[in-house]
Amino acid sequence: MQKIIEEKPFPSKLEDRLASVANAINTELKIATLLHLDDTPREASEIRQRVRETIERGYLPKTETFMAYGNTLHDIALVAKETVVRDTGEVAHVGYSLTEAGKRYGLPASAISLEYSVGNDISLFQILGSTASKGDSRAPDNRMKILEELRKKRELREADLTDVIGLNSYYVIQGHLIALAKIGFIAYESIGAKSKGKFTYGWIRGRSPNDVRTIVGHATLTRRIVDYLAHHDTAIDCNTLSEVLEYKYPNIISQILSGLEKQGFVKRASPWISREIKSSVRILDKGKEFHDEIYLQLVELLSDHSLDGYQEKVLAFRESEQFSDNIIGGIELYRSVSPNINRKSSSERKEQIKHLIINNHGLTSGEIAEKLHISTASAYEYITQLSGIRKEKEEHEIRYYIDE
What we know:
Blueprint: E1 2-6, H1 14-22, H2 28-35, H3 44-55, H4 63-75, E2 79-85, E3 91-98, H5 100-120, H6 124-128, H7 139-152, H8 158-165, H9 170-182, E4 186-190, E5 200-203, H10 219-230, H11 238-244, H12 250-263, E6 266-269, E7 279-283, H13 285-302, H14 307-319, H15 322-337, H16 346-359, H17 365-372, H18 376-384, E8 389-394, E9 397-402
Antiparallel strand pairs: 1-2, 2-3, 4-7, 5-6, 8-9
Helix pairs in contact: 1-7, 2-5, 3-4, 5-13, 5-14, 5-15, 7-13, 10-12, 11-12, 17-18
């Protein structure tokens, strides 16, 4: 038997420490995992069982999820990973234990965050988003930076936040702002967040429409868009093109326009004046409270101030009668909003939509999408696969019925 122990160094810079801890507290299940670790390496099945003993009954994901959390916490240096390998080369087991940084910073950050989540009836996932985001930085860290900048300034624009945070895409910053606005943490007004598309696209002269490859599986729509752009010497945004082609879903048109840009058939331009993005972002009371109660405490903790007080808080929290209630409440909050937990098979989703239409005659695909927390394009695809569907056009909307 060979024992391999892997432990990554915890960052020394405050900014990097904040990024690491933000990625540890963005879901209550990940927090529960961290709070059930100690100095002894624990396999994923044992971690799950420890959480089960705390909550007794109720939802818990499969063992593999706790292994994934263990690996994530190891990647951000809060957990050590022990792998035991047999002489044959086969892995006997993998265990996870707290590093000094995990005990010193991870546990207090988890306790602080979980109490906030349950006390304010909101999952941290709604606030911080997923760690599975594109680019070098992750959503949890970026969203805390956004709130920090807005707390310091009275009002900022998308462009200001993009520069300060160091993101290179307005689409990325806009996604964060929309999410924070939805939970009442900020007030966000932007041309790009409303009906008009932020970018216009124009055909590149000399390119042959015949060379275009089908984009996102929409052969007919791709061809219609190509034919229009190639024969009109003008730039156009996705929403205007949606109206021109009488195609209801501008988000799909936007995907195709982006695909055409990648293939080198169109060029993109912004209708806004350079560096004068017409947007306004302000922090609201809920956002201020999260910043002051969570962000500032994390800064204090990770700056090595008053560590004894935080360690005592963790000990009292884990031994309190409220510990199990907080774990149960936190998991349920995350369960209600988690896209992975709530993912359904195609047949389940179609059955869900069918009953929704039967019980709510005349819904549009957009209304169905909103009720089920899925994209409008997905809702439309499922609707087209249902039998017995009746469509009625009402002004510019298509409404759906199922005659029982």
